[in-house]
Amino acid sequence: MAVPSPVLTVLLLTADTDVQAQFKQALKDASLTIVRDSAAFQKETAKHHFDAVVMESRGTAEKSLLLPAHVDPSNTLIITGSRAVLKKAAKTIHLLNPSAGHPSHQGKNRDTSIESYLETKMGDFVRGMRNGSAKNLHPILISAVERPLIASVLQETKGNQIQAAGLLGLNRNTLRKKITELHIPVKRSKNKSRPAA
User: Fold this and answer.
1) Tens digits of residue pLDDT in 168-196
2) CA neighbours within 13 Å on the CB side: how many for 162?
3) Dihedral (Cα; 98, 102, 105, 108), 10-degree rounding
4) Average pLDDT, whole number, for the chain?
5) Which residue range forms the structural domain that includes residue 157?
6) Tell me, what CATH number does 61's domain have?
7) What total of structural domains would you count in the chain?
8) Model-level pTM?
9) To which H or E segment does residue 83 belong?
10) How many CB atoms lie within 10 A of CB 27?
């Protein structure tokens, strides 16, 4: 039985282990080749064709943007930048990668529940807040989740608070109180199919 080829082949040039780990996470379904220096980079690009080349730049722009002649920028995605830029690129790729949060066609079992998503995001948030010596996380987090939830439901119900309260499982007066407390703007859509008077 033939093994399917990876969707994407990527060459990553960086010695930073954090950047390497982030790209491994972001490109789980890709064939990722990691090199730590420019000599290994030159050898790999001479031996193989890559769909994308990611390079950590150091020094002047002229030095960091030199590509081997056999790497065709019109057929290869080129990402180059500082370690901070590469970390942001890895996060962006992870968010855009449809297989990062969904079961892939190869049958890998990935949890796509909202609880799993929130658990991951909350973990990152809590670690960041703990490092900053924050306190009273419960009300901060509840407010941070409650406001966009109510705003989304109100948008979905076109500002109809009775329908929104029903969808949220709240009493209409409780919903109105929360709208006021959380400063949520309510825009009511007019029904265009009203009969003429």
Assistant:
1) 999 999 999 999 988 888 877 665 545 55
2) 0
3) 130
4) 78
5) 119-181
6) 3.40.50
7) 2
8) 0.47
9) helix 83-96
10) 24
